[in-house]
Amino acid sequence: MENALAVAALACGVVAFISTFWVSAHMISSWFGTLGFGVGLYSQYVSVTTPQRSLNIIGLVGSFVGAALGIAHGGFLPHP
Prior knowledge:
Elements: H1 2-18, H2 26-46, H3 50-73
Helix pairs in contact: 1-2, 1-3, 2-3
């Protein structure tokens, strides 16, 4: 379970970070960043090995940057 959470946090972080390169993808960045940040925090709490913690930190940073830039570019909802 811990490995799956670490990989999920990393995947959400990568998606959130990569989608920040397109302003129109702000919803993807915002939602995946927020989801990845929550999953990453819980995964960090239950992790037992150093590789899991390393993946968690990379996922957390990517998720945070993705969520912050996604919110700055337009937020969680589409523009009217």
